[in-house]
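Reopening this one. Same input as before:
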Amino acid sequence: AVVSTQSTGSSLSHVDAQGNAAMVNVGHKPQTNRTATAVSSITVNKAAFESIENDTNKKGSVLTVAKIAGIQGAKHTSSLIPLCHQINLSHLDISFTMDALTRTISAQCEARCTGQTGVEMEALVGASLATLTVYDMCKALDSNAVIRDTRLLSKSGGTQK
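Same output, byte for byte:
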């Protein structure tokens, strides 16, 4: 059963009739092509930005390691977020944009699958892990870097409400 919230009138799909957390049953849903794209950004100081831009960070290629970390993290989303389903991902990609004026690096993650549930969480985890990795690799240069604006940009497939 699904419980309705009084304040918004919307139903909470991850709550059972007794109000306990529950994994959603997606067994009745059709297999459809699903995509999601998310972004997360990190703003760093000049020294950290230049080490990324010039590929001179002492820990290695920051964006290469961040890309691998984002992909690896997205593949483990169901292990990190308790009520997420395991998803057979067909595609993951992390791309970066760098804004020298604001010293901001944005990681965009695109996730794809054919399945019964969406890939929004995988895209969000991928983008988040990429920026967390940038922070980790640059913290010696900038321990005050700020990760912000992590959000879903788009999703498709399944039933849109």
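So the earlier flakiness isn't reproducible anymore. For the record, The first strand starts at residue 3 and ends at 4.
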